[in-house]
Amino acid sequence: MEYSVTFIESVKRTASAVSYRFSRPAGFTFRAGQYVIVDLGAGLVHPLSLSEAPAERDFLEFTKRLTGSPFCDKLQGLAAGEVFKVKGPSGHFTLDGSEKSLVLLAGGIGITPIRSILKSLTGQTARPAQTILIYGNLHAADIAFREELEGLGLPGYRLVHVLADPQGVAGSYRGYITDEIIAAVVADLEGATCMVSGPPVMVAAMQKNLAGLGVAPGQIRTDIFMGYE
Ligand SMILES: Cc1cc2nc3c(=O)[nH]c(=O)nc-3n(C[C@H](O)[C@H](O)[C@H](O)COP(=O)(O)OP(=O)(O)OC[C@H]3O[C@@H](n4cnc5c(N)ncnc54)[C@H](O)[C@@H]3O)c2cc1C
To answer: What is the pLDDT of residue 190?
Structure first.
């Protein structure tokens, strides 16, 4: 379905990640982890994950990494009340209720669908017994939704930061997310559902890491942010 929506406001998450909030069309429903195709006109079209949870608020929101592209320029120039189009929702990077234990691996802006999924779990009684988020970024300043994710208050939840920057933050691992880090953080991968979201290179590396740790392809769900290197 295609909808005309109205831009409401933007919220800066980090120096290079901004959330854009817009009106929720009547009857629009989606599942945490899904995305919409955002059409700003003049051929400026991109798929973007919805970063809020379905029942969280009465508006919709996506969060874009700013790259200086024409699409980003247009987004940054939006004024409240301007209209653009979204198509969707689409995507299968979602929960189906069968997850006993959840391992979430996010690379940078790949956190957006995972934030939605985590927020949706906070309101539910039927949820995985254990939810571990391993969140990779270059620097502490790049951690989008940091405060929220660190204070989620979800039973059985643990967040581990992995930062390329040697400075790190409390309890963080250094470098990129490796198989050693996953093995050190997740005591038991057997039967776990692993969800990976990020740029193509990151997702491919995580698939390799998980395979090396004995995780079967059927246990892995991916959201590949095509368009980033
Ligand atoms: C399912 C899905 C969900 C996604 N969710 C999100 C999300 O929540 N947040 C988010 O930020 N992104 C998300 N993405 C990625 C998003 O759709 C864009 O592809 C990405 O943000 C890059 O868009 P851009 O406008 O910044 O750059 P673009 O202008 O589209 O450029 C993308 C890349 O192509 C290069 N490029 C552009 N034009 C040219 C050219 N003429 N010649 C050579 N190279 C060129 C750029 O240097 C850059 O590396 C998602 C992607 C998918 C598939």
So the answer is: 95
